[in-house]
Amino acid sequence: MKLIFEKGNINRRLDLMPECDVPVVDVDERYKRKKEIRLPNVSETEISRHYTKLSKRTFGVNNGFYPLGSCTMKYNPKINDEIAKLPGFSDVHPLQPEHTVQGCLEVYKLAEEYLCEITGMDAMDFQPAAGAHGEFTGLKLIRAYHRDRNDTKRDKIIVPDSAHGTNPASAAMAGFTVINLPSTEEGFVDVDALRKVVGEDTAGFMLTNPNTIGLFEEHILEITSIIHEAGGLNYYDGANLNAIMGIARPGDMGFDVVHLNLHKTFSTPHGGGGPGSGPVGCKMHLTQYLPTPRIAEKDGMLTFEEKNGKSIGRVKDFYGNFLVVVRALTYMMTLGSEGLKNASENAVLNANYMLHMLKDTFDIPFGKGRCMHEFVISLEKLKKEKSVSALDFAKSLLDYEIHPPTMYFPLIVHEALMVEPTETETKETLDEVIAIYKELYDKAYTDPDSMHNSPATTPVGRPDEVAAARNPILRFF
């Protein structure tokens, strides 16, 4: 399929422009382009057909089952978009006078209040634009806290070997040295190993709970206490919060700072590079280091407070991705506290149902037949016996119009497939998917060669991912 830039004719264009209602100004020669910009000259018909064809090649939660583990690809209710389109939200500008955007500031305050209640934090900031951005911001809070206490020797962040790859990357980017902590054979944090690595140089500990194996850390209070006793702080990666809303709170587990993924847990659009939102929450002893400006009430009006000498400063222009926050707030207000709790309960129920139906066919190395919101399959045995890899299995699912689960993560599971069905899938859908998984498993033993060449029905088969990574072409022009 051709790119839009490769279509059209120099004499064909869509130029139904309104008459100019402002003075025409002659642009100085030094500001003019030396070459004509290569805009596509296409008709409205061509534009419509081009993007309609592209939409048919795109797969998302509106098309079908999308169980990307640790990504929470839940359905995004359309009421979220309807509210975000209201002129009072969509037709405003961040540089408007504060008195003209009081409703927008109220959205931020309400969202902060609700998210603090859900997480057990005392404050929440919405500047970070994504999860990893939130990680970096939260780690900068930890760094600022220790520096403010003249405790500059604390430069180590402890990260489990099952953590998201962004955790150690964010810690290193924030100026810390990363200490890798092994998991136990059961997939939990090794408490004895943790005791051995903490010390006077421990700045903090990063943890996802439930973890990436899909298990709730059974010794979580002991873990966070060990870090606090050593003088460090506990960081909560909120990627898996969808399993525990209304059931357990990071703040009650002993975490000092969290980041959330509104584009996961709170049903805002997910994928395609954004916009996302990774707000950072913290306990009271860290609030003075949050990014500025902060929203405060003064003389009965909401306003931005810029002055805070201990703040880590801005981490994004303006105040974060506002309309994403509008969507998340709509989701929270639509469901209410009981609805959010039910969402988490159903997410856990769906994952356990799939696990139960697949455990006699597939090797599921952790959890002893139970999980939280997701579980991890290992195809290591299949790879050894029939040379069918996790990649082969995932690509074969595409021929059934099912999105593959997350592959090769977490790293502690070989030939891993991480499955997270979310709460928005019906039992009928789960039963269909379970049958397909079992059918493909049998096919791997009876006709493995066909799986090596899958998918056969998609417009794109298997791109050369190695070549794409080593020789990226980042633009058309």
Structural write-up:
With 477 residues, the protein is an alpha/beta fold. It contains 15 helices and twelve strands. It has three domains: 4-57, no CATH class; 79-333, Aspartate Aminotransferase, domain 2; 339-467, Aspartate Aminotransferase, domain 1, CATH 3.90.1150.10. It has helices spanning 44-57, 78-84, 87-90, 102-119, 131-148, 166-173, 191-197, 220-229, 250-253, 322-358, 380-386, 390-397, 427-446, 448-452, 465-470, and strands at residues 123-125, 156-160, 177-181, 202-208, 233-237, 257-259, 280-282, 294-298, 301-305, 375-378, 406-407, 416-419. The protein has a seven-stranded mixed β-sheet, sandwiched between helices. Strands 10-12-11 form a three-stranded antiparallel β-sheet, covered by helices on one side. The chain has a two-stranded antiparallel ribbon with strand order 8-9. β2, α6 and β3 (177-181) form a beta-alpha-beta unit. α2 (78-84) runs antiparallel to α10 and α10 (322-358) packs across α13. The chain is globular and about 75 Å long. The mean pLDDT is 94.
Distance between the termini: 17 Å
Give the rounded overall mean pLDDT.
Answer: 94
CATH architectural type of the largest domain: 3-Layer(aba) Sandwich
Oligomer: single chain
Helix content: 25-40%
Written as H for each helix and E for each strand, in order along the chain, the element string is HHHHEHEHEHEHEHEEEEHEHHEEHHH
- Class by helix and strand content? alpha/beta
What's the β-strand tally?
A: 12
The share of residues in extended strands comes to 5-15%
Strand order of the largest sheet: 1-7-6-5-4-2-3
Shape, principal axes of CA atoms: globular
CATH domain class of the largest domain = Alpha Beta
Biggest β-sheet description:
7 strands, mixed
CATH superfamily of the largest domain: Type I PLP-dependent aspartate aminotransferase-like (Major domain)
Q: If you consult CATH, what is the topology of the largest domain? A: Aspartate Aminotransferase, domain 2
Rg over alpha carbons: 25 Å
Please count the helical segments: 15
Number of domains: 3
What ranges have pLDDT less than 50 throughout 5 or more consecutive residues? none
